[in-house]
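Re: beginner question about structure tokens

> Can someone show what the tokenized structure looks like for a real chain? I only ever see the sequence side.

Sure, here's an example I had lying around. Input first:
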Amino acid sequence: MPQLPFKVHELSVGQLSARSGAAVSALHFYESKGLISSTRTAGNQRRYTRETLRRVAFVRAAQRVGIPLAVIRDALAELPDERTPNREDWARLSEVWRSELDERINQLVELRDRLTDCIGCGCLSMDKCALSNPYDNLGEQGPGARRLRVDRRTTDPAPAPASKDDTGAGTCTPETP
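And the corresponding structure tokens:
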């Protein structure tokens, strides 16, 4: 990682990219979304203050834990005079984001646990399919994998027979054309 002399107070986009690990295109995107800002030289080149390094680190850390950019931007906008976030800012904001992240984690764990059942039987119309049929609306059409059925001979094909395995979950029986 290239080191910058302490006397350098402004960074080019290339220097900021090298020091922060963010691609130049990502830095331009962050700037377009109001997460960071730059000034322009007489030659219209972007220049960033050294403090922008901490701001980029803040944005990237928040992104890694799944915080949307709009939420990050709003959090940065709340800082007085749009100053660079410090340790206390991160602690306060991460505490606010913690409950949202915990809820998202719980949803993903539940989805993961249901996903195994769905793949195990191959039926996408189980009574609790979290992927494509969360309220079993397709169950009213009969047993079997309603969305996987391919029968172009009729517009209202007869339902495929379904059997029960020893877990009680419906299993799909392949259709014959």
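Each token stands for a local structural state, so reading them left to right follows the chain. The longest strand covers residues 46-49.
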